[in-house]
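Our working data are protein records whose layout never changes between entries. The record below serves as our worked example for the rest of this section:
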Amino acid sequence: MKKEVISFPHLGDYYVPIQFVLKKLTKHEVRPSPPITKKTIELGMLHSPDFVCIPFKYNLGNFIESLENGATILLQAGGGCRYGYYAEVQEKILRDLGYSFQFYSLIDQDHFTVKEVYRTFRKLNPSLSFVKFAYYALLAIWMIYLMDRQDHFIRSHIGFEVQEGSFEALKKEMLEAFSKTKGYFSLYRTYRKYKKKFQQLEIQQPKDCMKVGIIGELYTSMEPFSSYFIEKELAKMHIEVKRFTNVSYLLYQKKWQTKRMLRKISEYCTYRLGADGMDNVYRCKYLIDEGFDGIIHIKPFGCTPEIGAIPIIRKICNDYQMPVLFFSFDSENSDTGIKTRLEAFYDMLQERKKRL
């Protein structure tokens, strides 16, 4: 009998809980896509429509690398803006390239139910009980929440570490421990252990340090390679970073905050803009109210919801004299150009801070 291998695209460190839950709920080998490199985007570009947004190309490159690496089953999250249509198009492209595989999308038509996801997993493991599915699915969701919670702390302090690389090394160790968790109590104990370790790392952070908020499209926010590791570059400049979008927010926070966010920005925005467009208008106002020094808005080239949000964000920043920097990422961006713009933005923020 042919050995089945499951694979899925990369999205930051979230491959850890995804791999964990797939191993627990299926009987197949789980092999995430290889880490994203320039080869990944080159493969995606070669076989993608020219004007499709960059996350499509990254995902397609991920899938091709996975198939070349022996994958026989591909999983796609689906849902959200044009991303909801990607699964069918990507599957068609891959089959036209001659690959043989099974393809599953967890979310169709921009919504999902627990029963639908369970039915998908039953196709991968016909003997899977709903109790086991619910137990490990909730455990993976909790793992994601704890990862996101610790990430907030890391972004706030990593730019001020005394020993270079200490935060990244400890995070890598924590994720390895998370991947071996036995259950809820084991996961919580591990989280508490590493939370304490992170708090004990030596930092030199002034009270009036520079603070920058990152807002924008969800994929470029969560996949560091697609934004040219912008958070890491800011940390090198000794900047405290706040980023809102993560999987926890998308799974169970976004839905309940929409009305409140619209109410808070009613002067600037009356309706939702699609995807995270309206959310980022609200975040812009929030960062101003919280006294941040600057805002960086990031998106993939051609992202329609964020294109709609940009004029509103620009207006708010003009009204409150808040510096804002816009990045639109595609496959032609250069590291040097991005770093140069960040350095110029940092210099401007420093001068502004001196005058205030």
Summary: Residues 15 and 66 are 14 Å apart (CA to CA).
